[in-house]
């Protein structure tokens, strides 16, 4: 049974569920599997060079006839080229994040793309709407990976953004099952974006050790760190303890950046180094107890949503 909202109409999908475009996780296999299940799959361009990004787009198009999209973090050094590849390959749905949405929105929309931007507070939601985006993702600081500085939770962020803009709002951060999806829609969201639950899927391109770390995580497994540099939520490990110690000693931004170096996220997520790598995971990991096919995850989300909705007084 379809769940119709402003989001399903915008994207021509069956269920108001978006799979997050995560670095080192969201390749064409995951995006196609999610889209084939009736939700919206996204290819995460943040960890790809332009030609690899093109390859994933083409393979995804071969693997699904249903709508899919891409996510382009605007802080990527390849952002301009990734946008160009997106236009050349005529990808119909584009999510942008970590930057100014005004930079590419007009250009993308001129070529017929539907554009969505990820925000972490009301001010940026209004700026995104003014830039012409078709929807926004309101991401609470429960989410894994890079986060907003304001530390606003999804529960309070979503209704404020819904009240502030006239475009569809997609709730994100801390959502891993149908109960969270039901709550998000009750807050006025037109749909949900889910990351960590799909990271622990069979089609996720992440390392098996990373997926297992999600399954083994509990409610206190993650923390938000590096607030001086760039706030990141990750699982507490050796790297976390070392960077936390630096923060507590009052290390400068330069010192922290030097210690962070490059490739920490790849090290953990793609290569499986759970000691020295940055295990970017959301608080929702505490709700996840298995690694499933992406299509089964979508099916469960819908069933859980319907059950949660039926239990409301």
Write the layout of secondary structure elements.
Blueprint: H1 6-11, E1 17-19, H2 28-36, E2 41-44, H3 50-63, E3 68-73, H4 79-88, E4 93-97, H5 105-110, E5 114-119, H6 122-130, E6 135-139, E7 145-146, H7 154-164, E8 169-172, H8 178-186, E9 191-194, H9 196-199, H10 208-216, E10 222-225, E11 232-235, H11 238-248, H12 253-260, H13 264-269, H14 294-311
Parallel strand pairs: 1-9, 2-3, 3-4, 4-5, 5-6, 6-8, 8-9
Antiparallel strand pairs: 7-11, 10-11
Helix pairs in contact: 2-3, 3-4, 8-14
Structural notes for this entry:
The chain has 14 helices and eleven strands. It is globular, with a radius of gyration of 18 Å. The strands form two sheets. An eight-stranded parallel beta sheet has the order 1-9-8-6-5-4-3-2. It has helices at residues 6-11, 28-36, 50-63, 79-88, 105-110, 122-130, 154-164, 178-186, 196-199, 208-216, 238-248, 253-260, 264-269, 294-311, and strands at 17-19, 41-44, 68-73, 93-97, 114-119, 135-139, 145-146, 169-172, 191-194, 222-225, 232-235. The chain has two domains: 6-205 and 288-311, TIM Barrel, CATH 3.20.20.70; 222-280, no CATH class. With 313 residues, it is of the alpha/beta class. The protein starts with 5 loop residues before the first helix and ends with a helix. Helix 2 packs parallel to helix 3 (50-63) and helix 8 crosses helix 14.
Q: Structural class per helix/strand content?
A: alpha/beta
Mean pLDDT: 95
The beta-strand count equals: 11
CATH architecture of the largest domain: Alpha-Beta Barrel
Low-confidence runs of at least 5 consecutive residues: none
Strand content bin: 15-25%
What string gives the helices and strands in order? HEHEHEHEHEHEEHEHEHHEEHHHH
- Count of structural domains: 2
Provide a count of the helices. 14
Strand order, biggest sheet? 1-9-8-6-5-4-3-2
